[in-house]
Amino acid sequence: MSRLTRFKNHLLAFVHEVFADDADIYRQPRSSAVLADCYHEGAETILLDCGFERPHGWQKFHLPQHFTEAEKKTRATQAAFRLLSARYDVNIDNSLLCPATQEAHLDGRCQDARRTPSAR
User: Using one digit for the tens of pLDDT, what is the confidence trace for 75-93?
Assistant: First the structure.
């Protein structure tokens, strides 16, 4: 491996470490497919738990096509909130956010915050 290739690989790894999200959840252009790119093993486990499958290699995930559009949005939103709760950086396409699932996670977080001071 040449010095230039090693330098390029180190530079790309550094840029990814500093600027990249741990997971990206998005819709494939001109398609109804919901995809996720994942860069950490712990985040992979969360995506798999939320119904994503891994057919295209180690970083690519997708939701099965037999899911309805509402179910795809629900699962994508659940995955995003679970990843955020586990302190991963997540980028999710706004068109994939399910308002009901979003509210349920935010309500659960508010209830947890209310319970925490009383537990002391």
Answer: 999 999 999 888 888 889 9
Whole-structure pTM over 0.85, yes or no? Answer: no
Residues in the chain: 120
Alpha helices for the chain (secondary structure H): 3-19, 41-49, 69-85, 99-119
**Euclidean distance between CA atoms 75 and 67, whole angstroms:** 10
Helix (H) or strand (E) holding 31, with range, is none
101-109: Cβ within 8 A, 24+ apart: 101/73, 101/74, 101/77, 102/77, 105/77, 105/78, 105/81
Sequence-separated (6 or more) residues with CB below 8 Å from residue 94:
none
> b/e for 20-39, b at 16 or more Cβ within 10 A?
ebbbbbbeeeeeeebbbbbb
> Backbone phi, then psi, for 11, in 5-degree steps?
-65, -45
Dmax over Cα atoms in the chain, in whole Å? Answer: 61
pLDDT tens, residue by residue, 37-57: 887 778 888 999 999 998 766
Evaluate if residue 14 carries a pLDDT over 70.
no
